[in-house]
Amino acid sequence: QRDETLTLFNQQVAVVNAWLNYLLLADLIKVYQSNVDRYAFSLKQAQTLVTSGLRPGTDSSSFNSQYNIAQMQLIGFERQRDSVRIALEELVGGKLPPGMAADSTVFKRLPEVAFSADTVSAGHPEVLLQKAEIDVNELSLKSMKKSIMPRLTLWSTGYGRGSGITADGSINSGDGWHFERYNYGFGAQIAFP
User: Fold this and answer.
1) Which contacts qualify for 180-189: CB closer than 8 Å, 24 or more apart?
2) Most buried among 20, 66, 136, 187, by the most CB within 10 A?
3) pLDDT digits (tens, 9 = 90+) for 41-90
4) What torsion do the CA atoms of 27, 29, 33, 34 make, to the nearest 10 degrees?
């Protein structure tokens, strides 16, 4: 379940990331459009000065090349915006509205979110997954520490026998059925892995 929560969280992060990229590119397109307009004005001004003979024709070609570069940059950013929009549509699983307004207030003022470190870390899927992995690693470390410790084994044994032989050496075979002699043993064993 934690993997599922983490996957959902990663999907949400990808959607937000694509949306912020879309907003950034929309603002950049506005900047580069004003750049194209500025170079168009400079080109028109240079062409007017060239036709009136006040400036050489090289100024006009220089402004023309700058104008073309600015247009190519604008087209490049428009293509990036379109590709980000396609990626955003794939992430949300549907078409976005055609006149989608790019709300760029996020670049002027960041949203205020009230949170504490405890609430963020308590429910964050990545944090929960990492905590579970830490618990697994701690248990395996504990198991490994126990496996390399020496093992102490206690043992004991006892038995009795009847021999029919008395202490002075005389033999009475009928007495062999009763336990007369007792043997026992106690011990401890330490084994190192």
Assistant:
1) 182/158, 183/158, 183/159, 184/156, 184/157, 184/158, 184/159, 185/156, 185/157, 185/158, 186/155, 186/156, 187/154, 187/155, 187/156, 188/152, 188/153, 188/154, 188/155, 189/152, 189/153, 189/154, 189/155
2) 66
3) 988 888 888 888 777 766 778 888 889 999 999 999 999 988 988 888 88
4) 20
Q: What is the residue whose two structure tokens read 């700058």? A: 66
Q: What is the DSSP letter of 112?
A: P
Residue 117: strand, helix, or coil: helix
Reported as a single tens digit per residue, the pLDDT across 137-193 is 899 889 888 888 888 888 888 877 766 666 677 777 666 566 666 778 888 888 887
Q: Return d(Cα 52, Cα 139) in angstroms, integer.
A: 87
- Cβ(132)–Cβ(2) below 8 Å: yes
